[in-house]
Automatic annotation (TrEMBL):
It comes from Micrurus surinamensis. Gene3D superfamilies: CD59 (2.10.60.10). The keyword Disulfide bond applies. It is found in: Secreted. This is UPAR/Ly6 domain-containing protein. Pfam families: UPAR_LY6. Coiled coil: none annotated. One of its GO terms (cellular component) is extracellular region. Its main location: secreted. Keywords: Disulfide bond, Secreted. It comes from the Eukaryota. Residues 81-134 form the UPAR/Ly6 domain.
């Protein structure tokens, strides 16, 4: 079983926080990801932390995952070893990236696109590029859910 605390911010808006609880299937590897931080300079970031248990059914019922603060994660000194394109755009499936120095634990560039829905508002296409840790595994057609 897992509990994942998440925080996402788009275009410098107030972050949306959420909690996801569930059971990992045999193919999943959520429990090995731990703290996940993907970012596109100041336009977009996703921060999450997973806590897992397997001692009994529904063992995650009263477990919360501690989420480090964004400023704490973001102030990690830049490694200057990896430079990735960085951008975020609504109503597009791609965006043109500016150069971004990745943080110490970010060792891969990412490109992601999809749709985002907030409340009852109409879904919007989006695209983002930036830095991520190689432990993050997002497959095609993955649904990311945040907040209520």
């Amino acid at each position: 079983c897992y509990t994942i605390e998440t925080q996402i911010s788009i275009e410098k808006q107030n972050p949306i926080k959420g909690t996801i609880k569930g059971c990992q299937d045999d193919k999943g590897d959520v429990c090995n990801e731990r703290v996940v931080f993907i970012s596109s300079e100041n336009a977009f970031y996703l921060l999450s932390n997973a806590t897992c248990c397997k001692d009994k059914d529904q063992c995650n019922e009263n477990i919360t995952a501690q989420l480090p603060g964004f400023s704490e994660v973001n102030k990690t000194f830049s490694s200057k070893k990896l430079v990735c394109p960085s951008c975020f755009a609504f109503n597009n499936n791609t965006c043109e990236g500016k150069r971004m120095y990745c943080k110490k634990d970010q060792d891969k560039c990412f490109t992601i696109s999809g749709t985002v829905t907030k409340g009852s508002n109409k879904a919007q296409d989006f695209a983002a590029k930036g830095c991520a840790a190689s432990s993050i595994i997002l497959k095609s057609n993955t649904t990311l859910m945040f907040g209520d």
